[in-house]
Amino acid sequence: MNSIWNKNLEAFRSRFPALFEMCKKEISAIKDEEGSAALISSLKWEVLTAKNGDISAREGGTALHSLYNPSREASNAVAQTAVAEKSSALFYGFGLGWQVIEFCKKYPDKKLVLLEPDLLHLLGAFLLLDWSEVFAHEKLILAVGCPQESVLSLIEDSSRVNVGNTGVNDTFFFDLPAFTNHAAEYFNDVRTIIKRNQRKNEINAATLKKFGKLWVRNSRKNIDQLTRCQGLAGFKNAGKEVPFLIVGAGPSLEGILPHLAELKKRMVIICVETALHTLLKNGIQPDFIMLMDPQFWAFRHIAGLSAPESVLITEVSAYPAVFRFPCKKIMLCKSQFPVGQYFEKKLSLDLGDLGTGGSVASAAWNFAYFCGAKKIFTAGLDLSFPSKQTHIKGSSAEQTFHTLARRTRTVENFTAATLFSANASPAENYLGERVTTDSRMKMFAWWFEARLANCPDTKTFTLCPQSMKIPGIEVCKLQDALALPEITGQKEAFLAAKMPEPASEHSLKAIKDTFPNSEFFENASFLRDYF
Prior knowledge:
Layout: H1 3-15, H2 17-22, H3 24-28, H4 33-42, E1 45-49, E2 55-59, E3 62-63, H5 70-78, H6 81-84, E4 88-92, H7 98-106, E5 111-116, H8 119-128, H9 132-135, E6 140-144, H10 151-156, E7 171-175, H11 177-180, H12 184-222, E8 230-231, E9 244-247, H13 260-264, E10 268-272, H14 276-281, E11 288-290, H15 296-300, E12 307-314, E13 327-332, H16 338-346, H17 360-370, E14 375-379, H18 396-404, H19 411-420, E15 425-428, E16 434-437, H20 439-453, E17 459-462, E18 473-475, H21 478-482, H22 488-495, H23 505-512, H24 519-523
Parallel strand pairs: 4-5, 4-7, 5-6, 8-13, 9-10, 9-14, 10-11, 11-12, 12-13, 14-17, 17-18
Antiparallel strand pairs: 1-2, 2-3, 15-16
C-alpha cells in the first residue's frame, strides 16, 4: 500500500480511536493495491493528474475538483470573505479533500465539521491525498454516517440557540453538488434541517427586535421579583421517576378532558396558559402553569382565574400583572432577555434554563426534560386546525372571540382570520389524514422535531392522534396512559423538592444603586438597541 494511505490511517487511528475501531472491517478490505483499486472502482472515481501535477478525479463523469489546478481552486474557495467572518464551517461532502486541507491551513482555530454519510468516500480520499493537516486541526468533528437529525447538534454543540451569530448562523456551509451527488437524498435532508433552524433563529432575532422595548419595560418593573420568587434549580433531574403530561389548548383536547382527573394521578400535568381556563372549568388544577410571553394578551389568558393548587412558572420579563396571579406559588426560570440575564448573573442566580423554542409548549417540554423526565405525554398539542377548529371550546382564546364578536364581525370572522393569517398549508396527522396547518405552527413542529432528535433518552408521546404528525413523537392510546400506575407518593416527593432561596433584597439594591434611578436602563450597553 502507498505511504499516503498508511500515514492517513495512522493519523486517523490516533485522532479518532473509537471511530477507527468501528471502521476496521472496511479498512481491512483495503489491505493491498488490489483492494485500493477495487475501492476506487466501487466509488466510480476516475483518478486523473491535473495540468499542474495535482491529483484530481471525476465521479460518475463529474469532476470533483479542477482538472487544471485543484490546490489553487481550493485556496480560492476558502479565502472568501464570508468564510473568514464565520467561526465555524461545515462541508457537505469533500471529494478528495482539497478544500478541507486548505481550510485547515488557513483557519486552524475555526471549528470544522466534515459531513459524509458514506465511509468508503472518506477512505477513498485517504488513498489519494495527505490528510495530516486535517487530523492536526484542533477543532475537527468527523461526522461519518451521522444521522441527519443529529447534524444540528454538532453545529450547535448541544447548546441553546439565542439570537445573533450562534450555531448555524455563525457557520459557513461548503456545499458543492459534485461532493454530494452520491448521497443526494441524505444531504437534502440535512439542508432542510439546517434551513429550518436558520429560519427559526431569524424569527427569534426579529422577535427580539420587535418586542425588545416591551421586555425591557416589563423586566424593569419586575426586577424585584428576583427577591420574592424561587428559581427552578431544585427540580433539575428530580422527576426521573414520574411521567409528565403537557396540555395544550388545541381542539383535540376535547377527547382527553373527561379523563384528566385520572391522568393527574399518574402524571405531572404542565398546562400552557391558553388551556388553563378550560382545565379550571372542568375542575382540574394542573401541577404547573407555563406563561412565557411578555405581552398583555398572554396575561389575559389567566386574568380573573385562580389556581391555589398550581405552581405558575414564568420569567422576569412577563407582563407585571402576572405576578399577582393567585396560585400556590410563582417560580422563575432563567430569563432569555438582557435585563433579567444581567441581574441573574450579577446575583449568581441559578433559576433553571428552559431555553427558547418560540412557543410556550416548547418551554413546557423543556421544563419536563429539565426535570429529568424519561416519558413525556402531550394532549391538545395540535399545531394544526383539526376539523377547521383553532382552539378547544371554552379556552380563553375562544372566549375572547366571543367577547369581541359583534353583528358585523362574528366569531367565524375571527376563526377564519386565524386559519388563514399565516400561509395555511396541508399536513398529515398521526392517522394519515390531511389537516390544515400554517407556517407559524410548522416552525414550532420543526423545533420539536430537532429537539427530540437531540434528546433520544426521553420518549415523547401524544394522546391525540388528530394532531399534526411530528417525527419523534409516537401515539399512545388513551387506555394505555390510564393503565399507568398511580404515582401519588413519587409526585409529592418531586413537588416537595428543595429550592434555592431567592436573591436577597440587599444584594439587588446594591446592584441597582450602581446606576442612579432609571439611568441603568437607559445607559447599560447591552440595552442600547432598544432605545
